[in-house]
From TrEMBL, chain A:
Pfam families, sorted: Trm112p
Entry-linked PANTHER family: MULTIFUNCTIONAL METHYLTRANSFERASE SUBUNIT TRM112-LIKE PROTEIN (PTHR12773:SF0), UPF0315 PROTEIN-RELATED (PTHR12773)
Gene3D superfamilies from the UniProt entry: 2.20.25.10
GO MF assignments: protein heterodimerization activity
Top-level taxon: Eukaryota
Gene Ontology biological process terms from the UniProt entry: rRNA (guanine-N7)-methylation; tRNA methylation
InterPro entries: Trm112, Trm112-like
Name by which UniProt lists this protein: Multifunctional methyltransferase subunit TRM112-like protein
Recorded family membership: Belongs to the TRM112 family.
TrEMBL record, chain B:
Gene Ontology molecular function: rRNA (guanine) methyltransferase activity
Region named Disordered: 230-277
Its job: S-adenosyl-L-methionine-dependent methyltransferase that specifically methylates the N(7) position of a guanine in 18S rRNA. Requires the methyltransferase adapter protein TRM112 for full rRNA methyltransferase activity. Involved in the pre-rRNA processing steps leading to small-subunit rRNA production independently of its RNA-modifying catalytic activity. Important for biogenesis end export of the 40S ribosomal subunit independent on its methyltransferase activity. Locus-specific steroid receptor coactivator.
Classification via InterPro entries: Bud23-like, Bud23_C, Methyltransf_11, SAM-dependent_MTases_sf
A GO-annotated cellular component: cytoplasm
Domain (Methyltransferase type): residue spans on this chain: 55-130
BP-aspect Gene Ontology terms: rRNA (guanine-N7)-methylation
Family: Belongs to the class I-like SAM-binding methyltransferase superfamily. BUD23/WBSCR22 family.
Protein's cellular compartments: Cytoplasm; Nucleus
Name by which UniProt lists this protein: 18S rRNA (guanine-N(7))-methyltransferase
Organism (species): Leptosia nina
Length: 125, 277
């Protein structure tokens, strides 16, 4: 699972959970793959992200080196920043581990890079 | 036994490893899937040359995702079948996938996506595979959470196989209830094989639905071409085609020459009566 997905993913489908965001990450295996850099996409997606959540997620898996905690104005022109954001968003992948719901503490296992968000009958709203 | 996959087993069971393998080895399935995805992207009307973040509902082995990548978009997929997603990971897709059941809701933050597509997945929602499943409720949960996960001028295009008219009604009514505008576009409605259903939903304001392929007007055009050919062959023999304006005018001319009482030619000659008659 890439961090861009983590930035969008919630556990609000659980019964009794209101926002279910952000999910905490417990990673046991992290992989870095190379992905083509697309500066246009990165600068388009950044305003949509919750940057603080992204930074904390990157920090919690030890990939926040050089990543600023806040977005500067005119980030579109800073290609160094865009490359770092690209790396964190698309290249770092969590292979094995857990996602933890901040409200209910429910764990969603990640195996082979796929988070399992399936609920049991009792958990469906 | 019915041949529809939905009647055979729940999706997470039906799309097992054997079925999943078909989606990477069978070139016919792959071609059809990519054609339908192309058509979905066409119906999405995304801004040109802008990379978007799209949601692929029922992404399966990522065949549709690959087409999205080719069009320069980033995508996140959700599917209920583990075996299909494993194949997707094997195929080294650029997008990302999540194992989730669409009937339980779309587990994404509000405003995440610029659009969503779904190829041959929506019909599974009509199933009640577990005792707790209520299709109407699941449809509503799906549409309302999907509505939330989209940005405000987004579109969703579902290609799907409805079983009957009432399923279509149920789908559109639940989608409208969740806040969507839109409707069903049927490509090639007069063909048994090429006929394809697309549910096109919009989040922001009602806009005209895109035009379906192979509908009446195009058929009429084809018919005209056929007609023209027939006419040409008749004309070669020196007589205009019967019941056409040319034929009528010629007939009147002939009657005049014979000295018979004939009404003068006007702009109404040979024209169809209006519907009021």
């Amino acid at each position: 699972m890439k961090l861009i997905t983590h930035n969008m993913l919630t556990s609000k489908c659980l019964k009794g959970v209101v926002t279910g965001y952000p999910l905490a990450i417990n990673a046991t295996n992290i992989k870095v793959t190379e992905v083509d850099f697309n500066p246009e996409f990165i600068s388009r997606i950044i305003p949509k992200l919750d940057w603080e959540v992204l930074w904390r997620a990157a920090d919690s898996i030890g990939h926040s080196d050089g990543l600023p905690q806040t977005i500067e104005p005119k980030f579109e022109e800073n290609s160094d920043f865009l490359k770092k954001a690209h790396k964190v968003l698309l290249e770092v992948e969590i292979e094995e581990g857990n996602l933890v719901c901040p409200e209910s503490g429910r764990r969603f296992p990640i195996s082979k890079g796929i988070p399992n968000m399936l609920l049991t009958e009792a958990e469906v709203q | 036994m019915s041949r529809r996959p939905e009647h055979q087993a729940p999706p997470e069971v039906f799309y097992n490893e054997d079925e999943a393998r078909k989606y990477t080895q069978n070139s016919r399935i792959m071609e059809i899937q990519s054609q339908m995805t192309e058509r979905c992207i066409e119906l999405l009307l995304l801004p040109e040359d802008t990379p978007c973040l799209l949601l692929d509902i029922g992404c399966g082995s990522g065949l549709s995702g690959t087409v999205l990548e080719e069009n320069g978009h980033m995508w996140i997929g959700m599917d209920i079948s583990r075996a299909m997603l494993d194949v997707a990971i094997e195929r080294e897709i650029e997008g990302d996938v999540v194992l989730a059941d669409m009937g339980e809701g779309v587990p994404f933050r509000p405003g995440s996506f610029d659009g969503a597509i779904s190829v041959s997945a929506l019909q599974w929602l009509f199933n009640a595979d577990k005792k707790s499943h209520q299709p109407v409720k699941r449809l509503y949960t799906f549409f309302s959470t999907l509505y939330a996960a989209l940005s405000r001028s987004a579109r969703v295009v579902f290609q799907f196989y409805p079983e009957n008219e009432s399923q279509l009604d149920l789908l559109t009514s639940q989608a409208m209830k969740a806040g969507f505008y839109g409707g069903v576009v049927i490509d090639f409605p007069n063909s048994a094989k090429a006929k394809k259903f697309f549910l096109v939903l919009m989040t922001g304001g009602a806009a005209p639905l895109p035009k379906a392929l192979g509908t009446d007007e195009e058929d009429e055009h084809n018919l005209q071409v056929k007609y023209a050919r027939r006419e040409a062959s008749k004309r070669a023999r020196g007589k205009p085609l019967k019941n056409t304006k040319a034929w009528l005018l010629e007939k009147k001319e002939r009657r005049r020459k014979q000295g018979k009482d004939t009404r003068p030619d006007t702009k109404y000659t040979g024209r169809k009566r209006s519907g009021r008659f």
